[in-house]
UniProtKB/TrEMBL annotation, chains A, B:
Protein name, entry field: DUF1611 domain-containing protein
Residues annotated as signal peptide: none
Record lineage: Bacteria, Pseudomonadati, Pseudomonadota, Gammaproteobacteria, Lysobacterales
InterPro entries: DgcN-like, DgcN-like_C, DgcN-like_N, P-loop_NTPase
Transmembrane residue ranges: none
Domain D-glutamate N-acetyltransferase-like C-terminal: 146-339
């Protein structure tokens, strides 16, 4: 179980931070899997979550204190973040009274769903009347430039993958936590909706118009001190039949000094595309280095993050050791931590 | 000088065709370079251009008959297309009376500028009152899906490049013209604004949200008969620090059976990015084939389209022969045509 995060907070940069601390909203959710955004926020931004709120009859709790929007505002909350990720990404009409209550209590609303808060009429008029904001973390910021390709100062790590949903966000977050514990000046740079809520800022890369996607990645991790690390959440995969373009724009714009390749043990085909065999880890390393060299000739791969959630502890340990031997680089499952993960985290800094 | 096109017209597919024939509008343009959209339409869609119209004092003409919007409507025109591509892509206030006149005369308006027709108040209200359309060819169609990666029937050629602005559109258009003259069932599939006006339909790939860019390329060239060829206008380059993601999405979604690599002779760095050396032609072939194989294992390179506009005829002929010898494949400049170009066009069909 991850501990409350140390400092996965908003980094300095051009992108406006979200209003925080958060009150987490669980809606009327009855299935823990649909509350994973709230769990992620509790685990990684716990010090910026004053509590949780829900509709009467909700069956899931994050374990944080139950606070009304009024109580949460009194304790410092400045927004209520919808922590539900239901299939279809809709905002249920049953939630609207609680969402209005939060606006009345002085909180902005933050959503990361497919549905837009501003498309719901009572919310739009209440926000206008009260001077509150309806923030959609999937909405890119204004003013994203075309990428310049200019090499930026500071150090960058990008998590890349053999596929979607292999642990790129989790790997980036655990590396930042580990490094900050060692005194490294490191920030998490979010490129997806849950990551943006955790970081308190970021850009949903997949929602940017294609011509500006590499420019968005450049904007996301601006010039920084020579010892500063931005750890950037990867998206998609260079081998994905739908999302490879996003992955390449992110690789070029991020200009990573270091990549960590993420893979889910046992997965053999692209998620949702059973006709597409997954690339090997070696091929994933090689192609990312080759293409990444275009904007940062010093790019290197520090190791592999292996998601072993489907294995038991002994199987996982054996596989991690065997893969490390086979590939000749550190391999670890950040969920399991331990010495293997510390070696991977160290190898990135070398 | 290209002849009037044979049949670069709207192809069957899911994307709504633009209203045609066109009346070309030249605004108050005084510099031929800024009227190149109009020249492109005259050269490639001449049979669908009833004439030209301009503000008093315009100093550029396409050579087509000067017709008022009322005359053009009477001769069958159904839209007035802005044929100006000025720096900044703005719509001059000086054009608004003529644009309103066209709406009153029964014509829809088509723009491909950065500025949107619908953002100009008198046009918006006049269009609403008259039931006319303000069409922006850079606006992607609704309902673009995430790419499926499913292999589609029919044959596809994609022009790819070492850089932007090397002749990818022109190469695709000349191949279609050559093939149709030979009786091949071939259509031009447009991915940029001028191409869309020429074809009468298409998708501005660079304006699609990144997650859907490969899906847009799939939508652009739907399933077709086994002998049918879609010739797809390439965008950007896999080596471009800003646009590589667009190029990869287009490569994956197009699933080309054949690529033709386009290069501008003498160009040594990426246009607008002098710090980025251009890749070699061999490297461009190899990387496009390697990445394109992911969605179409049968992909092959049929040859090279070499833009020799900066050379005289003798220099061009020598360079084309030398490059063909060096690369071991057909090389031609479609602007110069001739036997070399016929060999290239044949090699694509082999």
């Amino acid at each position: 179980m991850p501990q409350p995060a140390r400092s996965i907070q908003a980094a300095p940069g051009a992108i406006e931070p979200l209003p925080q601390p958060y009150l987490l909203f669980l809606g009327d959710v009855a299935e823990p899997a649909y509350a994973k955004t709230a769990f992620g926020l509790r685990d990684w931004a716990g010090e910026r979550c004053v509590g949780e709120y829900a509709c009467v009859g909700a069956k899931v709790s994050t374990g944080l204190r139950y606070l009304t929007p009024e109580q949460a505002f009194a304790e410092g909350a400045r927004s209520m973040a919808i922590g539900v990720a239901n299939p279809g990404g809709h905002i249920s009409p049953a939630w609207v009274p609680q969402l209005l209550q939060a606006l009345e209590a002085g909180l902005d609303l933050i959503g990361g769903m497919h549905a837009r808060l501003a498309d719901i009429e009572p919310l739009r008029s209440a926000a206008a009347r009260l001077g509150r904001r309806l923030l959609d973390v999937r909405q890119p910021p204004p003013g994203i430039p075309v990428a310049s390709g200019r090499k930026r100062s500071g150090m960058r790590l990008l998590t890349v993958g053999t596929d979607c949903a292999v642990g790129k966000k989790y790997t980036a977050l655990t590396l930042v936590r580990e490094w900050r514990a060692l005194g490294v000046d490191a920030y998490f740079r979010a490129t997806g909706q849950t990551g943006i809520l955790i970081a308190g800022q970021g850009i949903a890369l997949d929602a940017v118009v294609a011509d500006f996607a590499a420019g968005a990645a450049e904007m996301l991790s601006p010039d920084a001190g020579a010892e500063h690390w931005d750890v950037i959440e990867g998206q998609g995969s260079l081998f994905h039949p739908a999302y490879a373009g996003v992955a390449l724009a992110l690789l070029h714009g991020s200009q990573p000094d270091v990549i960590v390749v993420c893979h889910a043990a046992g997965r053999e085909t692209v998620l949702g595309h059973p006709g597409y065999p997954l690339p090997g880890i070696e091929e994933t390393i090689e192609l990312n280095l080759r293409l990444g060299r275009r904007t940062n000739p010093r790019i290197r791969c520090a190791g592999v993050s292996l998601n072993t959630a489907k294995l038991d502890a002994a199987q996982a340990e054996r596989l991690i050791a065997a893969e490390s031997e086979r590939l000749g680089c550190p391999v670890a499952d950040p969920m399991r931590g331990g010495e293997a993960f510390r070696r991977l985290a160290q190898a990135c800094l070398r």
